[in-house]
Amino acid sequence: MRRDVFAAIADPTRRQVLDLLSRRERAAGELGRAFPHISQPGMSRHLRVLREAGLVRVRQDRRHRFYSLRSERLGEVDAWISKYRGFWETELDSLEAYLDARKRPGAGPGA
Amino acid sequence: MRRDVFAAIADPTRRQVLDLLSRRERAAGELGRAFPHISQPGMSRHLRVLREAGLVRVRQDRRHRFYSLRSERLGEVDAWISKYRGFWETELDSLEAYLDARKRPGAGPGA
DNA sequence: ACAATATATACCAAGTGTGTTATGTAATCG
DNA sequence: CGATTACATAACACACTTGGTATATATTGT
User: In this predicted model, what pLDDT tens digit does every residue of A8-57 receive, in sequence order?
Assistant: First the structure.
């Protein structure tokens, strides 16, 4: 199943899982224990979503399934957000809004 | 209502709306007409989600409600994704996985 | 005041996501 | 082989999302 990366990272738990995996690979059970409020099958399903989005890979080692980060597809998110980078740093959006407002007298913040 | 930015941008239509707003502000109706497959109330609700996530602001001008980008909160997304930037460029994650695999003889790609 | 325009909300149906418990499956140990 | 460990899947409940139609609200034009 082909899943949308944006949807996959919409869940806070899954983002935290990726954060853990960015340091090193971890077994499914180890990840589960890192989130005590979620059941084992619950974590297994989160891992499935991440797998189907192509954000992690799995490696079987003896009895364990080790998940590791596969970051390529995060590039899609980065590419999208890149278009906005600089906006919140330079407050360019606020400036633009201000200028737009001034084009319509009486609507924006009057000088 | 306080909404999660990641959830707000999980929807493709809403991302496209933000893309349109990144160029210039637009009236709600104008945005609606840009997505003919979505009804007027449908677009209105998408705009509400973006509003509640703090991703847009609204300005009333005569009969129109002009939406404009408010990019600050996109910084949250950028901050998160920044931790991964460089991973997919340098293939650092793949290298790491390879090394991890070699630590466990017989499990990874044999030399 | 009344009609028209522009947008939002109410309401309902259908789909999807998340979480649970119970169960299945694969690998390892004795 | 039977038990145990590690993980995935099945089946189900429930909340949330999305999209539609109908309606409300606000502003402007006549």
Answer: 999 999 999 999 999 999 999 999 999 999 999 999 999 999 999 999 99
Of the pLDDT bands very low, low, confident and very high (cuts 50, 70, 90), residue B89 is confident
Identify nearest nucleotide to residue A62 by CA to C1′ distance: C27
Which nt sits closest to B62, CA to C1'? D27
Amino acid symbol at A54: G
Q: Which amino acid is at B38?
A: I
For residues A10 and A64, membership in a common domain is answered with: yes
Which tokens hold the place of A8? Answer: 């996959």
Does A110 fall in a domain? Answer: no
Q: Which domain holds residue A35?
A: 5-71
Residue B37 backbone dihedrals phi, psi, to 5 degrees? -80, 0
Task: Please tell me which of the candidates B15, B70, B101 has its beta carbon nearest to residue A80.
Answer: B15
CB contact A3 to B (< 8 Å): no
